[in-house]
């Protein structure tokens, strides 16, 4: 499996027991949806390796306690601490309304209620304090904060996002 066909699920943060159980910090608001997984891809040496799950449960509501079939000792578990976990993109739960995954909106056209057509989303910058839409408008980059109050409609069929941003924000870039 290639990494570009997967989404980041979380990271193995520590051992739970001497029998090889591990605790995973999930990158999700809804950890319950990942309790019944049968397998997961673990990143090792820049490769995604499938690991089968013998059992899993939530630990203190935010961590996933996992027992992999192949990991039977504390030594085996030590080698996995810090590893990232991935799942195929087709396992992402479908989002509705104004919710979206960053990777799915690349190529969407952004329209603003007041300004009109802004441009095309070419990326999302989530390395800043607030994630930003990276929009290309005739070769110029426009950055707009991804804010629930700005997003009015996500049309997956037409591949458009309708925003209502503060007056003058778009014009700053033009």
Would you spell out the secondary-structure blueprint of this structure?
Blueprint: E1 6-15, E2 22-26, E3 39-44, E4 47-59, E5 63-68, H1 74-78, E6 84-88, E7 109-112, E8 116-125, E9 132-137, E10 140-145, E11 151-155, E12 160-163
Parallel strand pairs: 7-12
Antiparallel strand pairs: 1-2, 1-6, 2-5, 3-4, 3-6, 4-5, 7-8, 8-9, 9-10, 11-12
Taking Cα atoms only, what radius of gyration do you get, to the nearest Å?
20 Å
Uncertain segments are none
Question: CATH class of the largest domain, please?
Answer: Mainly Beta
The total count of helices amounts to 1
**How confident is the prediction overall: mean pLDDT?**
92
Class from helix and strand fractions: mainly beta
> How does CATH name the architecture of the largest domain?
Beta Barrel
How much strand content do the residues show? over 45%
The separation of the N and C termini measures: 42 Å
Summed up, the domain count is 2
What order do the helices and strands follow? EEEEEHEEEEEEE
Cross-sheet strand order for the largest sheet: 1-2-5-4-3-6
The number of strands is 12
Task: Tell me the CATH superfamily of the largest domain.
Answer: RimM
- Helical proportion? under 10%
Biggest β-sheet description: 6 strands, antiparallel, barrel
Which fold name corresponds to the CATH topology of the largest domain? Elongation Factor Tu (Ef-tu), domain 3
Shape: elongated
Descriptive notes:
This protein has 174 residues and is mostly beta strands. It has two domains: 3-91, Elongation Factor Tu (Ef-tu), domain 3, CATH 2.40.30.60; 102-173, PRC-barrel domain (SH3 type barrels). 3% of the residues lie in helices and 46% in strands. The chain contains one helix and twelve strands. It has one helix at 74-78, and strands spanning 6-15, 22-26, 39-44, 47-59, 63-68, 84-88, 109-112, 116-125, 132-137, 140-145, 151-155, 160-163. It has a six-stranded antiparallel barrel with strand order 1-2-5-4-3-6. Strands 10-9-8-7-12-11 form a six-stranded mixed sheet, with no helix packed on it. The longest helix is centred in the middle third of the chain and has 5 residues, at 74-78.
């Amino acid at each position: 499996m290639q990494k570009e066909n997967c989404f980041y699920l979380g990271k193995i943060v520590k051992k739970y027991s001497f029998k090889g159980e591990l605790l995973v910090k999930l990158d999700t608001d809804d950890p319950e949806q990942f309790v019944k997984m049968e397998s997961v891809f673990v990143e090792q040496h820049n490769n995604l390796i499938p690991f089968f799950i013998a059992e899993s449960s939530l630990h203190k509501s935010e961590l996933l306690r996992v027992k992999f079939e192949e990991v039977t000792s504390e030594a085996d578990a030590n080698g996995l601490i810090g590893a990232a976990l991935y799942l195929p993109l087709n396992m992402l739960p479908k989002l509705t309304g104004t919710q979206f995954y960053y990777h799915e909106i690349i190529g969407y056209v952004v329209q603003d209620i007041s300004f009109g057509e802004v441009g095309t989303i070419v990326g999302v910058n989530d390395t800043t304090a607030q994630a930003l839409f990276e929009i290309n408008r005739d070769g110029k980059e426009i950055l707009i904060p991804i804010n629930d109050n700005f997003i009015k409609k996500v049309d997956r069929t037409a591949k458009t996002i309708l925003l209502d941003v503060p007056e003058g924000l778009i014009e700053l870039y033009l």
